[in-house]
Amino acid sequence: MTARRAAPIVMAAFLIAGCGGSAGDTAGSSTQSGTTAPAAKAEADADDVPDEGDMTAVYEDATTPEAQNGRHLMESAELLENLAASVNDTFNLPGDFQLLGQQCDQPNAFYDPNEQAIVLCYEDADFAEAVFAKNGDPDPVDSALNAEIGSFYHELGHMLIDIYDLPITGREEDVADQLAAFVMLAPDDDGTIDPESVKVVRDFAGEFRAFADEEGEVGEEQFAGGHSLNQTRMYNLLCWAYGADPDANAAIVSDGELPPERAELCEDEYSKMDYGWATLLAPYVK
Predict the structure, then answer these.
(1) What superkingdom does the record give (predicted)?
(2) Residue 257: inside a domain, yes or no?
(3) φ/ψ (deg, to 5) at 101
């Protein structure tokens, strides 16, 4: 998937917010007569949220070979510009934000609330390209950019939780992974999920597989950390991709990427996640 698909994916995600069959079923089963469903209330309040800013893309200097390569990958694909445009087309922002390509001296991505910025480290794209090439990927550049798209939407999850003061239950890192999957697996206008969008999620999961291979044996620090284990994040993403359309994405299970025991739960898991995010974000969408 190229960066140019980022904006259509985001728009599709929120054009269908609260309108899917599974979401409607959930609302119907959990709402008492005479009350207002959360999605309906959020939709009614949408006009009350002002749009007071934009996200802008900035490529900072790169001096090391790894950072220079990562910047080249991002800039050649206009990755930051397209991702920033997708946010501006979709959300009412309470102020101005930056999407920074930055030399960090390690593979990473993060949201900085003090600077009102999401940072995609050049080294992350460089690392992803090297990993996919090492594993025999036929197009490691495209797969690396897909992983960066996933990283961006994960950090966007942190940003939206912060700026909209969204209520969440559970660890924020896991919730941010959910937001990334929610956006990337949004159906097209005909209700189908583009196979390229599924590949983005699978490539994002593949980067976590690579991180797990790199770190080796897991110790107390990883178990006690704020993030789920890399393997857990990988399986979560694969589960949601499968659960979004089990028939179309059956290869995720048949190829051995996702255990059948987990796969049995994924359609329901994805449906609940999709409804939850659609409800939470409805008031803030243009």
Answers:
(1) Bacteria
(2) yes
(3) -90, 125
